[in-house]
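Support request from a user on the community tier.

User writes: "When I paste my structure tokens into the form, the page sometimes reloads and wipes my input. The last time it worked, I copied everything first. Here is what I submitted, just in case something in the input itself triggers the reload:"
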């Protein structure tokens, strides 16, 4: 199978298909979910009257707080049916437990199989997994299951350890790596310092997770540009996913957004009042899962801000494409009259030479407003360098945060705490995020 038939159909046919699947999902949660039965009763919702995707608007969205407070009531299967336990990364609070059935694992494999196919991968590829498959992490498991369904080989190296990554590349000749994009720069640095010709390696593609690599117009941001300039032989494919949706959106070779798989998920883009934003506007990505048994979700607000692209893709798929995520709603910063997301800060910092790494700290000052301090890992500690950094911020954002210089090793220890599954770039100490 190359592209599923449903993804080649017209938008009206895709919508009709999803409405049929939605009815089955509503019936399932009405019978199995304590949380949703209670929600339907409280709001006097008759699911028999929900016939279209637009009718979903009568159902209040599910939030991360709902998952944290009522997690057990959202699980729809008996304990004996659970095959795997997974938790969210806990970026904005305590991790949430997700229970996966055997069917859910098959669905997860199919999802990542579709993602790999979007990226042009085949059974002849050899993957090298540079993300963790343990620590209750869904993504690493999904990639392994997807490559297995693709009938391709995978080398499970895990995250970190550049020396082991290059040893594995040289031993197994992988053609595709799965990695957090900033880690690709780390292994490029290691190669250059240790006489390894990374330009002559077997790697031809990178499926990237966890960090944005593109701007809203699909051009590479600073991180994406640095990788492609230093390793031009590797084609980058962005992926957006979350544990809650058990689904990913992966770029095809056109690089114009992650493709929606309508057999797996319904997607809305909502404003602050739970209403759909006008077509083409940015809104909070809100999802309804299809075909999930363990913990299906209705209108789950992910907290991520993005927008839809509906024009047909040159790859042949007629599905919606998810544009680059510009930030998380709860991470929005109002700094000296300017509204921004941390990604805007990252893009500037990634573009300044002599900055090895950094941590952005946000806190509430004595006036009750947002304040930003950036801890910069660098060997250059001077007033002139500090002024240059601030000038870059003023030129791009009209405001400049406070700068504190640290050693790169010190910052690295903060970025990779013991229990972390992803690099930490933001520490939010604001009163409303404690």
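"...and here is what came back when it finally went through:"
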């Amino acid at each position: 199978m190359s592209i599923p038939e449903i993804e080649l159909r017209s938008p009206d046919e895709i919508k009709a298909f999803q409405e049929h699947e939605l009815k089955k999902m509503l019936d399932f949660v009405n019978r199995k979910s304590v949380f949703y039965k209670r929600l339907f009763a409280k709001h006097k919702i008759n699911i028999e009257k929900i016939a279209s995707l637009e009718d979903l608007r009568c159902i209040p969205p599910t939030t991360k707080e709902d998952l944290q407070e009522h997690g057990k009531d959202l699980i729809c299967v008996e304990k004996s049916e659970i095959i795997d336990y997974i938790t969210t990364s806990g970026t904005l609070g305590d991790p949430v437990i997700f229970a996966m059935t055997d069917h859910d694992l098959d669905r997860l494999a199919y999802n990542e199989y579709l993602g790999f196919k979007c990226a042009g991968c085949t059974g002849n590829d050899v993957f090298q997994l540079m993300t963790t498959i343990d620590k209750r992490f869904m993504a690493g498991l999904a990639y392994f299951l997807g490559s297995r369904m693709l009938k391709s080989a995978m080398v499970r190296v895990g995250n970190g350890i550049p020396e082991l990554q290059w040893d594995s590349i040289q031993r197994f000749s992988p053609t595709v790596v799965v990695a957090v994009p900033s880690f690709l720069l780390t292994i490029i640095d290691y190669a250059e310092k240790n006489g390894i010709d990374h330009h002559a390696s077997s790697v031809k593609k990178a499926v990237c997770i966890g960090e944005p690599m593109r701007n809203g117009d699909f051009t590479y941001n600073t991180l994406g540009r640095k990788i492609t300039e230093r390793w031009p032989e590797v084609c980058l494919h962005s992926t957006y996913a979350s544990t809650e949706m058990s689904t990913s959106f992966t770029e095809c070779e056109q690089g114009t957004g992650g493709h929606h798989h309508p057999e797996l998920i319904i997607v809305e883009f909502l404003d602050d009042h739970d209403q759909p934003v006008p077509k083409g506007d940015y809104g909070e990505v809100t999802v309804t899962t299809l075909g999930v048994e363990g913990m299906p979700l209705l209108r789950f607000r992910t907290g991520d801000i993005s927008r839809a692209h509906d024009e047909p893709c040159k790859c042949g798929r007629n599905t919606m494409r998810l544009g680059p995520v510009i930030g998380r709603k709860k991470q929005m910063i109002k700094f000296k009259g300017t509204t921004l997301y941390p990604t805007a800060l990252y893009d500037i910092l990634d573009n300044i030479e002599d900055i090895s790494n950094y941590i952005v700290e946000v806190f509430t000052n004595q006036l009750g407003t947002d304040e930003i301090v950036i801890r910069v890992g660098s060997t250059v500690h001077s007033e002139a360098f500090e002024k240059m950094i601030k000038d870059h911020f003023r030129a791009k954002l009209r405001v400049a945060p406070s700068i504190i210089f640290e050693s790169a090793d010190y910052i690295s220890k903060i970025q990779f705490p013991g229990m972390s599954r992803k690099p930490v770039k933001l520490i939010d100490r604001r009163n409303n995020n404690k």
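Agent notes: The reload is a front-end session timeout and is unrelated to the input. The chain has a mean pLDDT of 91. The chain is about 30% helix and 25% strand. Escalated to web team.
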